[in-house]
Amino acid sequence: MSSDTTLRTADEVLAGIDLTGKTAVVTGGYSGIGLATTRALARAGARVIVPARRPDTASAAFPSDAGVEVHALDLADLDTVWTFAEDFLRRHGALHILIANAGVMACPETRVGPGWEAQFAINHLGHYALTNLLWPALTAAGGARVVAVASGRNPDWTIRWDDVHFTGGYDKWAAYTQSKSANILFARHLDLLGRRHGVRAFSVNPGWIRTPLQRHLTTAEMVAAGWIDAAGESLPGLFRTAEQGAATQVWAATAPELDAHGGQYCADCRLLDSPPTDEADAARLWSLSAQLTGLDRIA
Asked: I need a labelling partner for 179 at 20 to 30 A (CA). Which of 41, 75, 123, 128 fits?
């Protein structure tokens, strides 16, 4: 994805949109494209709540008058997801925007919770649980949007149905692409279930951006991939800015022209078609996620 200066930023997407009186939750909203998303939504008038694994670090990213609240949440620990959601529902009547932005990429093999593979657990299952638990607030909003931040899509990507947690041998990139496929399938089925309640869902590809998401990759790996040179500098024309990367998720969360749409995969502030096989796989993933988390509150 090119860092073409013609790409819109999140602020440009929100130009003319007043989010005063709206409440948004942005997971991972204190770093990278999440931080750019949070700042843009707050500047447009929204009250933005940032669930953070490192609340002190997150709080330091925002001035006291930024219109942003930070609360503790670790997507790898469902007990903290429950605690965050219960606190949110006590304090807020409605949730207008939920952006499932937080994620981890190509990490060493890590087990969380009951032995879950970390990328699938953090990138997908934690967000699945959070959406289920915040469902009363989403349905109360009257036109809420849920945005799952995925990645570029490859038709060869799949869910490893017989071993989603890679107990039979770990591959960090296969685990990552599985989790990003899960983001796309999650949004597709959530929209199918949620549209009669006025809740629409989208998945987005933000493009290539250099952020802390790449923290588990070595310089040698990124040089070999053609992302950076030996000095650690980004190769020209490859990466976009965080503000440009945040544009599509902000667009999916707020654009009035999307009121009659949902379930689609988006890139560069436009809708892309999903493969026809998505429906069956999306329903299958939803059932598996409900089984693993013990949550299935959306019908």
From this structure: 41
